[in-house]
Structures are given as structure tokens and as C-alpha cells.
């Protein structure tokens, strides 16, 4: 019978626990196949977190860049004049499109709101003007190990495409508000955000796949 643990000093307690663990392992040996699986899994995990793993390096770079971007976005950009100019440009672009259809739609600069027949329909705030999309997209492009020549043409083209898609999003939300008001909140929070993020991912994946043969060339 083993002595009560509370009467043992720390060194003796450690030795006793070690002996018990050793006895348990002797009585319950690990199955060779199970041990092999554990070693393989451990090797895979260590390999993934290795600095030589391009996937780990890419994900780490994206996370670091996104933290820097989010800090800058929240602390300054979200209330900067540039942000309001983006909102204004988006509102004016959407209003101009609707003016071609004959629908009485106006952009109210003072409130950053699009009105239909004099009634407020859609407020374009900073979270809706596309800057958050631009920032996330930029982080993924910069972090990918491709040539800067490729990044410098793809990045502005991608941001322009995202802005156009965001303008389409605003237009569809206005139509949603005007004709199917009951589903407006759901589509505003989920549907159209999913579409924009999905588009960003597909465009980036297409570009990244094209860059894979030259992924090692960063000059």
C-alpha cells in the first residue's frame, strides 16, 4: 500500500508519480500502429509550424498584416475624410445608375443616405463603403509570395472590381428595400456580404493559382 501523498515532500512525490506512470506504461504498452500514427501526426504538426512551410509563412503574414490594417482602420481610417469620400462616391455612383431607370432616387450628402421618393432608403456608412473589403483583399495579395510586378497591377484591378461589385450590392439592396422590404435586414447582413467575400476569394484564388510557377520570385 502506497503512503498518503500529503505526507510526502515534493521530491518524493515527483518520484512516486514517475514510478506510477512507468508502471502504467509497462502494464499498458502503446500499440505499435497507434504509436506510429502519433509520431506521424506530431511530425505533420511540427512540419506545418515550421518557418520553411510556405503555407504557415503565408497565414502568419496575412494575420500580422490584417492586425496592422485593422488597427489603422479602427483608430484613424474609419472616421477619416477619405472614408467619407469613398461613401460619397459609392452613393453618387449608385444614384446615377438609378437616374437612368427613371426611379426618383437621390443621394443626400449631408446624411450619406440614398432616398427614394423623398424617403430615406439606405444609409452608406463606413462599414458599407467597401474599405474593409479593400483592406482584407490587400492583405491577402501582399502576403502571397508572388512578384511585385504582378501584385502592382492585380491589386488596383481587384479593388476596382470589388468597388463595382459593392455598387451592385448597394443597388440590389435599394431594390430589395423598395420591393421586398421584409427580407432587407437578412440580405444586408448576410447574403450580400457572403457574395462579396466569396467573389474576393475566387478572384484571389484565380490570381494566386496563376502565380504558383513563379511563387519563389518576389522581385
Automatic annotation (TrEMBL):
The keyword RNA-binding does not apply. InterPro entries: Exo/Archaeosortase_dom, Exosortase. The chain crosses the membrane at residues 55-76, 121-146, 152-178, 190-207. It is found in: Cell membrane. Its main location: membrane. One of its GO terms (molecular function) is peptidase activity. GO terms for biological process: proteolysis. It comes from the Bacteria. Pfam families: Exosortase_EpsH (PF09721). This is Exosortase/archaeosortase family protein. The keyword Zinc does not apply. It is a multi-pass membrane protein. Keywords: Cell membrane, Hydrolase, Membrane, Protease, Transmembrane, Transmembrane helix. GO terms for cellular component: plasma membrane.
Amino acid at each position: 500500500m502506497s503512503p498518503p501523498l500529503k505526507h510526502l515532500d515534493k521530491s518524493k512525490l515527483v518520484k512516486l508519480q514517475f514510478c506510477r506512470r512507468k508502471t502504467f506504461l509497462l502494464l499498458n504498452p502503446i500499440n505499435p500502429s497507434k504509436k506510429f500514427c502519433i509520431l506521424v501526426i506530431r511530425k505533420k504538426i511540427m512540419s506545418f509550424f515550421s518557418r520553411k512551410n510556405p503555407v504557415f509563412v503565408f497565414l502568419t503574414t496575412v494575420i500580422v498584416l490584417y492586425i496592422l490594417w485593422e488597427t489603422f482602420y479602427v483608430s484613424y481610417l474609419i472616421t477619416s475624410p477619405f472614408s467619407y469620400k469613398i461613401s460619397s462616391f459609392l452613393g453618387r455612383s449608385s444614384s446615377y445608375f438609378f437616374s437612368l431607370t427613371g426611379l426618383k432616387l437621390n443621394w443626400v450628402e449631408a446624411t450619406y443616405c440614398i432616398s427614394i421618393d423623398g424617403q430615406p432608403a439606405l444609409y452608406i456608412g463606413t462599414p458599407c463603403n467597401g474599405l474593409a473589403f479593400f483592406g482584407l483583399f490587400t492583405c491577402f495579395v501582399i502576403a502571397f509570395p508572388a512578384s511585385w510586378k504582378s501584385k502592382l497591377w492585380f491589386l488596383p484591378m481587384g479593388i476596382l472590381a470589388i468597388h463595382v461589385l459593392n455598387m451592385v450590392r448597394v443597388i440590389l439592396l435599394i431594390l430589395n428595400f423598395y420591393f421586398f422590404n421584409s427580407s432587407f435586414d437578412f440580405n444586408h447582413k448576410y447574403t450580400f456580404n457572403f457574395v462579396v467575400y466569396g467573389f474576393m476569394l475566387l478572384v484571389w484564388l484565380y490570381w494566386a493559382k496563376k502565380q504558383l510557377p513563379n511563387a519563389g520570385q518576389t522581385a
